[in-house]
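Try this one yourself first.
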């Protein structure tokens, strides 16, 4: 394979640990060819895929959703700028919603954590007597003014 990268080179160039790259490969996020000695060799275009995975994870996109998005890219050629633009448009609404939620959390968190009430008498997220615990694990209440969906 011409201009192929070893796993060490891909790790150095991408800033991602070799163990994570192996995991990404098992998850179907990146692809490697194998040499006659069964060593991984990556096309340079895999650097873009690794960068996309890292950035997507940083904004809270699940690996399953990342894989689905990457699966929509052409396998027969290196993705173009148009391919990446189309892919990013798929997530635009989700990212806008996440931005709104994070902004609300940022704005409300100071009042919640910084209020010092400790008694939770004024807390809008109060779960008196753990009444929601029977509904299962995870958060059950939303920030004031937000739907539960």
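Now uncover the answer:
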């Amino acid at each position: 394979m011409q201009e192929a990268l070893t796993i060490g080179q891909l790790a150095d160039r991408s800033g991602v640990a070799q163990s994570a790259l192996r995991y990404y490969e098992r998850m179907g996020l990146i692809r490697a060819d194998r040499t006659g000695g069964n060593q991984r060799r990556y096309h340079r275009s895999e650097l873009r895929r690794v960068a996309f995975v890292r950035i997507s994870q940083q904004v809270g996109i699940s690996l399953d959703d990342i894989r689905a998005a990457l699966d929509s890219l052409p396998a027969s050629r290196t993705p173009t700028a148009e391919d990446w633009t189309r892919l990013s448009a798929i997530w635009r609404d989700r990212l806008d919603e996440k931005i709104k939620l994070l902004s609300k959390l940022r704005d409300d968190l100071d009042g919640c954590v910084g209020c010092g009430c400790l008694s939770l008498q004024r807390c809008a997220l109060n779960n008196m007597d753990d009444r929601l615990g029977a509904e299962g694990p995870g958060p059950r209440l939303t920030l004031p003014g937000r739907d539960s969906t």
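Discussion: Residues 81-114 form the longest helix (34 residues). DSSP finds five helices and two strands in the chain.
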